[in-house]
Design goal:
Blueprint lengths: L4 H6 L9 E6 L4 E6 L4 E7 L4 E6 L6 E5 L4 E5 L6 E5 L5 E6 L6 E5 L4 E5 L6 E6 L4 E6 L5 E6 L4 E6 L5 E6 L4 E6 L5 E6 L4 E6 L6 E6 L16 E3 L5 E5 L5 E6 L4 E7 L4 E6 L5 E6 L4 E6 L4 E7 L4 E6 L3
Antiparallel strand pairs: 1-2, 1-28, 2-3, 4-5, 5-6, 6-7, 8-9, 9-10, 10-11, 12-13, 13-14, 14-15, 16-17, 17-18, 18-19, 20-21, 21-22, 22-23, 24-25, 25-26, 26-27
Amino acid sequence: MRWLPLAFACLTATPAFANKVFVSNERGNSVTVIDSATWEVIAEFSAGARPRGITMSPDGTRLYVCASDDDTVRVFDPETYEEIGTLPSGPDPELFVLHHSGNPLYVANEDDNLVTVVDVDTREVLAEVPVGVEPEGMALSPDGKMIVNTSETTNMAHFIDSETYQIVHNVLVDQRPRYAEFSHDGTKLYVSAEIGGTVAVIDLTGAEPVVTKKIGFEVAGIRPEWLQPVGMRLTADDSRLFVALGPANRIAVIDATTDEVVDYLLVGQRVWQLEFTPDEAFLITTNGNSNDVSIIDVAAEKVIKSVQVGEQPWGVTVTPE
């Protein structure tokens, strides 16, 4: 593996960390590591060609990165930053979701319209599920029984049974759905539509999932076509939904009890993905065109800091407690 100078430097010192924040840099072909106690960059390491989706195993021992142009998922040791293996994801993996137990991994393969299910221990493909055109967003229900994939061109959310790997429901949403997020109580699913400019609220309490509302966005001085919802994160108590609005450079704050927008927070340029620290004290956003991340104080709902990272940051994950 090619180590960048900062990564080498970090091996010579052992400061105390609160949590490590890992940011995938899509154009920089690297992952930047930030200490959440100081919000300082402590390392950067090579992560393959065009790293995008990124997540951590529940026990914090493995870091998974979608190396989209390498057609693989790369696995790293989050302590040493050494690559410890790859997973057979299929072509052009973009986003994935890990089972709550840590195995298997469900991967959206944009180029071949499949969701690939991979055993992370044996590195075997367990299933390939045909879905709509250009699959991207991935989510797993709180009980682990339902996988959701969003297909950008088909404009649907596909509900996949996690035991049979069969699609059981298809729900039409707005144009170019990007991301899906379950409520923690399992009663709702949110799906962001980048070109449609909305977040669909899907009720899951009945026999079939039903879109009950579409949340729109309006910011003074911002053209409507720039309001492009992409990444989302919902607080553990299901009270607040944070939505990245892409080139609008804003995070929308939504009261998830009423599904109404209550505020907009100004962040960096082309905000894409979001992640909480484990205690939900902070929310980190990746800003692709300004090459930085914004740090939001969740309780205050206020941006408190910007941290420069690599070139075109895309995804973000944080080590668990």
